[in-house]
Amino acid sequence: MKIESIEAVHVRIPLDQPYEFARGTMTSFDNVVVRMETDEGIVGYGESAPLFRSPTGDASAVAELIRGPVAQRLLGEDPFDVEALVARALEAAGGNVDGVAGIDVALWDIMGKYLGQPIYRLLGGLCQDPIPVDYTISAVEPAEMAQVAVKVHKQGFQGVVVKVTGESVEKGIERVRQVRSALPNHCTVRADCNGGFAQDDALEFLKGIADLDIEFVEQPVPAKDFDGLKRCRQIGIPISVDESLITLRDALTLVSEKACDILNIKVPRVGGFLLAKRMAAIADAADLAVVVGGRTAFEISRAASRHFAASTCGTRGRKHEGPGPASQALSDDVVTRRTTREETGKAGGHVRVERGPGLGIKVLWDKVRRYAVDLPS
Predict the structure, then answer these.
(1) pTM flag (> 0.70)
(2) Domain limits at 250?
(3) Does residue 30 contact residue 344 with C-beta atoms inside 8 Å?
(4) Residue 116 burial (C-beta neighbours within 10 Å; 0-12, 13-18, 19+)
């Protein structure tokens, strides 16, 4: 079996309402859908989700990278040679993991379909199912965030993530305090700053919520501020990293610097399944917890996150964002069926991993074409 064609399309799906966080206001998801077909007619799908407002966050550029130099290195190759092909893709992409993530997931989707097995069984088997997930609250006014927290908890969610921007330490503290006070003690609360605070402001923010029962705070300082992360850990609230964690080298640096307590591993952010599993192994060796982050991703990546969480034992015991439905008001998707907030709430804030071959989802190419920004001729 050989890879016969690779397509990569920049897809833009609008949000029903804006989503506010430290990097700005999102009105749509701009991601890359990858379609890979073999000479035996097996089609695999993947997704790359470039980081919003980042130097590599241009989805059209990522799509061109994938269908250009990355595809040239993979056409005619056996999709089962995943180790070699991911290495080739990473080299062709110049180390940009956004150019690899959709490719990697599509390869595993093909392998699973060929073997008639779900991806989680190829990645190590089942460690947990169902998978607990939480709900992320957009950074609006504190009282409104508290109302949202109460609403989603009544729907069945047992944990929330409070988005905190860097524009005001005081407002950040108030957002967390109001949400925490609105929920029962057993409901977990996390804060996600998306790197929005400078060091001193981050420390002031952490001290302002130190008396609360906060599970952890994610990325209080910018991505490369490892010294700031270490200072934040001294306050006593566990620190998770997201923007600081893109490559395996990042993971090793974070571990060696003792800069965090938790690794937030996002399948579409770190380059797909193979690199995500390697990153989880680093966390396991360092005795660090793993959460499976969501990214602003379509259902393709959310299914991928479920397979990763289900097959990675280091993810047990915590709630996750990636496997669950998008907390942002995504108006549509490119699949026949997407995970909803309502069904997740009815399941007590849990989702189940797909049991069908490969990703176990069906991608609708007419939907990809409908929302395409740069569909190649």
Answers:
(1) yes
(2) 121-351
(3) no
(4) exposed
